[in-house]
Write a structure and sequence with these properties.
By secondary structure, the chain is mainly alpha-helical. The chain has a single domain, classed as Hypothetical protein af1432. It is built from eleven helices and no strands. Helix 1 runs parallel beside helix 3, helix 8 crosses helix 10 and helix 10 packs antiparallel against helix 11. It is globular and about 45 Å long.
Length: 189
């Protein structure tokens, strides 16, 4: 099945988006091995995480399942691609594993109670080899020892940026951050 998905994704995404996707696959597979997560599941989720990224906002809306949080944030623009991508993967590509679908769905905004696979795809998208932004190398380093610490560092950086540009912040991102902080505090006690 993976071979067909690779072919489909390569034919669906523009070359630069496909290159990014392959970078996410590379990081996700490595992190999956380090955390005893199915490499196949990580590879599938990473491969499909941006499957709807090049859709128009209108096309994305056609795929989005009812999500109460979306009602109150108007046009979230390209952040919708994770939500749309999970529905697309299920309806059009026969992906039924809920962990894979959730990893696709929440790879942009996160959520409270993310599974390890969801965290892997979230952070792999942020640190794949093609990413180049301030502190990405530090986030990559943190990801080798703690996905949770890497996510907190990445989210804090992202929140500062979003506040600076007065962008809408999806509540899932705040809930994800708080939940991970709780997980880290529980590990210390």
């Amino acid at each position: 099945m993976l071979e067909k998905l690779y072919e489909f994704v390569e034919n669906t995404l523009p070359p630069m988006r496909y290159k990014h996707t392959l970078g996410v696959v590379e990081v996700a597979k490595k992190l999956a091995l380090e955390h005893n997560i199915s490499e196949t599941k990580a590879e599938t989720a990473a491969l499909l995480h941006d499957i709807s990224k090049c859709m128009t906002i209108s096309e994305m809306h056609n795929y989005i399942e009812c999500d109460e949080t979306l009602k109150y944030f108007g046009n979230l623009g390209e952040l919708l691609h994770g939500f749309a991508g999970s529905v697309y993967a299920k309806q059009k590509l026969d992906v039924f594993d809920e962990d894979i679908l959730n990893a696709i769905k929440y790879h942009t905004v996160g959520r409270r109670g993310m599974t390890t696979l969801e965290k892997i795809i979230y952070i792999a998208d942020a640190i794949e080899p093609g990413r180049n932004y301030p502190s990405v190398d530090e986030i990559r380093k943190k990801a080798t020892t703690s996905i949770n610490h890497a996510i907190i560092f990445e989210v804090d950086r992202k929140l500062k940026y979003l506040l600076k540009i007065e962008a809408i912040i999806h509540p899932n991102t705040i809930e994800m951050r708080n939940c991970i902080l709780e997980e880290l505090k529980n590990l210390k006690s």
